[in-house]
Design a protein that fits this description.
Length: 421
């Protein structure tokens, strides 16, 4: 006898062209962020498809957010299909904004070109193919005539590439996504058919400003250069902090391997009259540097900040006193879904069945919308699993393999049946 899940898989095989066409249709809407172009058009395209597939559809403008403007409205879309009962509820989320195309393309980044088994375009992997996979996974279950007990939602959201505050964070703040309603969240970001991503490292962005005393550039000995002070800070980061970070390793399965250790990057330095067209001879009295410190689940933000402050204090004690200020820009705590959770187990079983090989559990060096699901919505079962290859996201000639798209649609569909069927 044919099993329901085999019927579902068969529906996905026969819908393969439709899935690719829909992903290509989304790529042709150039939702470039910044500034956030064509969001209403893309939300509409997703909403129309969800409506065709029997979802109740809501368009949600992030009206309270400052980035929601007349020129660049922030419109999210949420489709819901009730099963026989409200819970459990599985939410599938994809962001539909894409980063600017940049240089170096050999195909039109917004044409949705299909060539040699690949779908090309900005956002093909990150993550319009993922959105198509999520929508068609639910639809395949319906076409196969498999009834669902629980409820399924699909959302298309904005601004993930710039922090997601008008997108996933906003949905959570509005109570559309909340632990009191939502049991499971799958975000089909491009980790590929074989990888289930459990979470990500933490982020601490901060600025350090050093202050000096200005004087005539012909007599620098009369002043005190803020740039020289900053270079003492940078030396200490290289000679003391970086080796200390290299000695710590997380138990999280972060890929690539190098990102299992905490890191610090100097995002930018600006001092004196660096950006002035016609500089005058002055000793710099101010220098600012922005840092990006990625921290581990095993570290905590208080210690991370304290470590930086004690480094600054040491630098100050080791020479002429340092006048500085440290200010936070952004803090994102690390998150990780338990590998023993029902969500991860259901996905693993589905990957086994579809791929014939076990999934690799990974974690991400950088953050994505999981943070909002965990911190704002309080939902603790959230993973990323979707088509495409993270390494080519944000690059010229971004592509997603069509086989990947079809396979991940199958895995997501089987997971839907397992979790809420
Ligand atoms: Zn993405």
């Amino acid at each position: 006898m044919t099993q329901p899940i085999d019927l579902v898989l068969r529906e996905i095989d026969s819908a393969a062209d439709e899935i690719v066409d829909f992903a290509a249709e989304l790529i042709r809407i150039p939702t470039v962020n910044p500034p956030g172009e064509f969001y209403p058009d893309c939300a509409q395209a997703i909403g129309a498809r969800l409506q065709d597939f029997d979802f109740d559809v809501e368009y949600l403008a992030a009206a309270s957010r400052p980035e929601h403007t007349k020129a660049y409205p922030r419109i999210n879309v949420l489709g819901r299909r009730f099963g026989r009962v409200a819970r459990p509820l599985l939410h599938l989320n994809g962001h539909f904004d894409v980063v600017p195309p940049g240089e170096g393309w050999t195909v039109d980044p917004f044409a949705g070109v299909v060539r040699a088994g690949r779908l090309y375009g900005r956002g093909s992997a990150d993550m319009k193919a993922g959105l198509a996979a999520a929508i068609y996974a639910v639809e395949a279950v319906r076409r196969a005539g498999v009834g669902l007990q629980g409820t399924v939602e699909v959302s298309g959201t904005v601004d993930e590439e710039s922090g997601g505050l008008a997108g996933m964070a906003w949905l959570a703040e509005q109570g559309k996504l909340d632990a009191s309603l939502t049991d499971f969240v799958i975000i089909p970001e491009p980790f590929g058919v074989d990888r289930i991503c459990l979470g990500h490292r933490g982020v601490y962005w901060f600025d350090v400003v050093t202050y000096g005393r200005t004087a005539h550039g012909s007599m620098p000995f009369l002043g005190e250069s803020a740039i020289v002070s900053m270079s003492r800070v940078l030396d200490a980061i290289r000679d003391e902090l970086a080796p200390a970070l290299a000695g710590r390793v997380t138990a999280m399965p972060v890929v690539p391997e190098g990102a299992r250790r905490p890191t610090i990057n100097i995002n930018g330095v600006s001092g004196g009259q660096a950006d002035t067209a016609q500089p005058t001879p002055c000793v710099a009295d101010r220098c600012t540097a922005t840092f990006d410190r990625r921290f581990l689940l095993e570290e905590n933000i208080k210690d991370v900040r304290r470590e930086m402050i004690s480094l600054l204090e040491r630098v100050s004690a080791d020479g002429p006193g340092l006048k500085y200020e440290l200010s936070d820009r952004l803090i994102v705590e690390p998150v990780q879904t338990s590998k023993d959770s029902p969500l991860v187990t259901a996905l693993q079983t589905s990957v086994d069945k579809v791929n014939g090989r076990p999934a690799q559990l990974v974690a991400s060096p950088g953050t994505y919308d999981h943070k909002h699901v965990a911190r704002l919505a309080g939902v603790n079962q959230c993973v990323a699993y979707g088509p495409g290859n993270l390494e080519i996201a944000h690059q010229p000639d971004e592509w997603c393999a069509i086989d990947d798209l079809v396979q991940t649609t199958k895995v997501i569909a089987l997971t839907i049946v397992r979790l809420i069927g």
